[in-house]
Amino acid sequence: MDPNQQRPGIPPNRPQPPPQGGGGDSSAILFVLFAFLAIFFAVTVLPTSSTISILHQVPEGHVGVYWRGGALLKTITDPGFHLKLPLVTHFEPVQVTLQTDQVRDIPCGTKGGVMINFEKIEVVNRLRKEFVYETLLNYGVQYDNTWIYDKIHHEINQFCSSHSLQEVYIDVFDQIDEQMKEALQGDCTRYAPGIEIINVRVTKPTIPESIRRNFEQMEEERTKVLIAIERQRVVEKEAETKKKMAISEAEKNANVSKILMEQKLTEKDSARRQQEIDNQMYTAREMSLADADFYKVMKEAEANKLKLTPQFLELKFIDAIADNTKIFFGDKVPNMILDQRLLGNFLQVPTEVSKEVSVEANSEGGEDNPEVQTV
């Protein structure tokens, strides 16, 4: 008989009773589901409450700090997930990287009694990790209220009270940043060495409207003065440039004139030297000619001296007598020619002759009328 075949007298689709021993599987499933929900609740819901949470997270750039029963623990955890006792241990993340604290609305009075207001001052600082426990133990989690916010108010008021409005707003405004940084860092180094002040940025303070207009007018006048000064400098520079150009032109002309003068002087000097050389050459040539003439005369004189012998003089005498047609010589004309002794005496002692003979041939009278003069 088929077991699936319906017996007569039994109603169709009758629910079958559950098998024995199946209740234990349902309980296990419910327990696992409850445990999963508990873990999910502990991970996602409870971490929003640092008091009752078991699992907590420390973000990057922070460290975990713990209090148990209000007492600060020395335990400091790094970024990541960590466990703690709920309702017993309190947890706070503390930033140990660079952070910027903005201090707003800082009123102060200047030396002259004018109230001004610094809208914002930014302080870049950092809490060193090795000083976290000591800093929180002494000043709590809000340590920056003590050493940054309150300190900035105090230092700004001190600075304003010792300077006038002109100095705070214009003259020494660029020094406020550095002075605030030195003041904050000095006290932090002495009392809270874990706090490091990196930089301080101070914005321009807000001053009364009437004073601000005065400053604007002063700045306009100062700008006009600066423009006038710059214009005067431009004019002076232009005049100086023209002067330098004129001086340069004059120097150039002077140099050209000097060069031309030197050229002319050089030419004159060259001409003078050439003339001197020509004169020297002429003098040397004339001296040579004079020496030659002197030498010629001397040689002729020596030659004549050698020629002036008694025989030569006798020959010349005879030639002179022979050239005349008639000769009248004293009272002894015939004996003049024939007397050899007289001729010999004349030739030997020419200086003892007491008479001079002058023979003049009268060409107008012809050869028949000679004239003889005796002295």
TrEMBL record:
UniProt GO BP:
SREBP signaling pathway
Q: Which SUPFAM superfamilies match?
A: Band 7/SPFH domain
- Looking at the keywords, is Ribosomal protein present? no
Named from the GO MF annotations, one term is: ubiquitin protein ligase binding
Q: Which residues cross the membrane?
A: 28-46
Tell me the leader sequence span: none
- Pfam families, from UniProt? Band_7
Q: Coiled-coil segments, which residues? A: none
**Band domain segment(s):** 53-219
Keywords associated with the record: Endoplasmic reticulum, Glycoprotein, Membrane, Signal-anchor, Transmembrane, Transmembrane helix
CC annotations in GO = endoplasmic reticulum membrane; protein-containing complex
Location of region: Disordered: 1-23
- UniProt biased composition (Pro residues): 9-20
Give the domain of life: Eukaryota
Thylakoid keyword on record: no
Kindly give the membrane topology term recorded for this protein.
Answer: Single-pass type II membrane protein
Subcellular location per UniProt equals: Endoplasmic reticulum membrane
**Which family does the entry's similarity section mention?**
Belongs to the band 7/mec-2 family.
What protein is this chain from? Band 7 domain-containing protein
